[in-house]
Amino acid sequence: MLNGGVHKPCEKPNRNLSVGNKKPWNMVVALSPLQVIGFPSLQLHMSGIAMRASQEDFENALNQVKLLKKDPGNEVKLKLYALYKQATEGPCNMPKPGVFDFINKAKWDAWDALGNLPKETARQNYVDLVSSLSSSSESSNQVQPGTDRKQQEYENLVVTSEDGITKITLNRPTKKNAINTQMYQEIILALKAASNDDSILTVVTGNGDYYCSGNDLTNFMDIPPGGVEEKAKQSAVLLRDFVGSFIDFPKPLIAVVNGPAMGISVTILGLFDAVYASDRATFHTPFSHLGLTPEGCASYTFPKIMGPAKATEMLIFGKKLTAGEACAQGLVTEVFPDSTFQKEVWTRLKAYSKLPKNAMKISKQVIRNMEKEKLHAVNAEESSVLQERCLSDECINAAVNFLSKRAKL
Ligand SMILES: CCCC/C=C\CC(=O)SCCNC(=O)CCNC(=O)[C@H](O)C(C)(C)COP(=O)(O)OP(=O)(O)OC[C@H]1O[C@@H](n2cnc3c(N)ncnc32)[C@H](O)[C@@H]1OP(=O)(O)O
């Protein structure tokens, strides 16, 4: 095992306030389910169906709708809006907007037209509508082992499959693979697809010089009409779902950490089954510097992995670890010289992928399942604490400092 090389942080002060390359209609649809516009008549062919969508199906549909490649048009968006409101709040009992308040009136009309449609039916109809909108792209999600096939197109990820290994590559190299709102949703979907495909191992890695610089600090800039409280609530829900998809991932999950890792990309490593790192990688969780608190279940997994004293240095004091240090503390499985990193790691992973598939999958579940309930509880608590922290002066000042190029971590 090698000692990690010392990574010298760059000091180039260069940023802008861009919020990423969302499609214009996505800006309306993607930010919040509450902003999705929808329409009434769908109940006609979908109501009364015996099959009921679970809350999880509904939440998946909420994520999927944000990833539709084509704008479904205002009529469909009105349908989605009305069904969402009916499914979550029941019949419309809001005051009718004024006649010149065109958009809100159209939304109100669509919701009101659903009358007393039961919440469960509205939820089912919502799921069915989203499924009909995205069915064509979903059908390309199955992965065959032994083929090198590009998966569903994502805006911020590249997902491929080869030799029974599904590889999810974080693909925003010009932003150091910072995770924006859409990328969180895409990772949730990619993990869901990988858990259902025929692959044996799933790998997460980064494109470019960074593995990932953590949460995209511009995420906090998309403030919905509900204001910053609503934004904090949405972020906490997204965070909980994101981390939850790692907790529940059923197959061996491996991180190939090709460069520096920060924030949430470090904390979730405690939920991976193996972590291979280049000696150029560093591991940095500057939560206190950002007025934030730990997430990704690290408040539980890190003290367990490295002991409370070492976990405190990382999670409270923001100590950056070299790959060698992270390996010595049990967060990293093995460190490789950067020059041979890819070759050595992929040779090893290809060998592992030839081991009996079911034995590996079941072993992972035996190792992890006992902890699942605890991890979900920790995740819920961390997300709820962060919902408050996002609104703190400490956090807002840190984000403003970064975005106005006054600070770098
Ligand atoms: C509900 C709340 C959930 C909270 C969840 C998670 C918490 C975390 O993940 S905390 C960690 C957050 N991450 C950071 O604070 C990192 C901030 N970035 C930096 O300090 C530096 O950019 C970094 C050290 C990563 C790299 O420095 P340089 O090598 O000098 O590169 P640049 O700074 O020029 O970066 C290039 C380009 O990328 C943009 N960038 C990088 N990281 C982020 C980020 N996390 N969020 C948004 N943007 C990021 C950077 O702004 C540059 O953009 P341009 O100026 O447009 O080129």
Structure commentary:
With 409 residues, the chain is of the alpha/beta class. It has 2 domains: 55-134, Acyl-CoA Binding Protein, CATH 1.20.80.10; 157-407, 2-enoyl-CoA Hydratase, Chain A, domain 1 (Alpha-Beta Complex), CATH 3.90.226. The protein is built from 15 helices and 10 strands. The chain has helices spanning 24-29, 43-46, 55-65, 74-89, 102-112, 119-138, 181-196, 227-247, 264-267, 298-306, 308-315, 323-328, 341-352, 357-389, 393-403, and strands spanning 149-150, 157-162, 165-170, 201-206, 253-257, 261-262, 274-278, 282-284, 321-322, 334-336. The strands form 2 sheets. The chain has a 7-stranded mixed beta sheet, sandwiched between helices. Strands 6-8-9 form a 3-stranded mixed beta sheet. Strand 3, helix 7 (181-196) and strand 4 (201-206) form a beta-alpha-beta unit. The radius of gyration is 22 Å and the shape is globular. Bound molecules: ligand LRBWVUCK. Residues 9-10, 12, 14-16, 18, 175-176, 178, 213-218, 235-236, 239, 262-264, 290, 292, 295, 386, 390, 402, 408-409 line the site of ligand LRBWVUCK. The site of ligand LRBWVUCK has 30 residues, from helix 8.
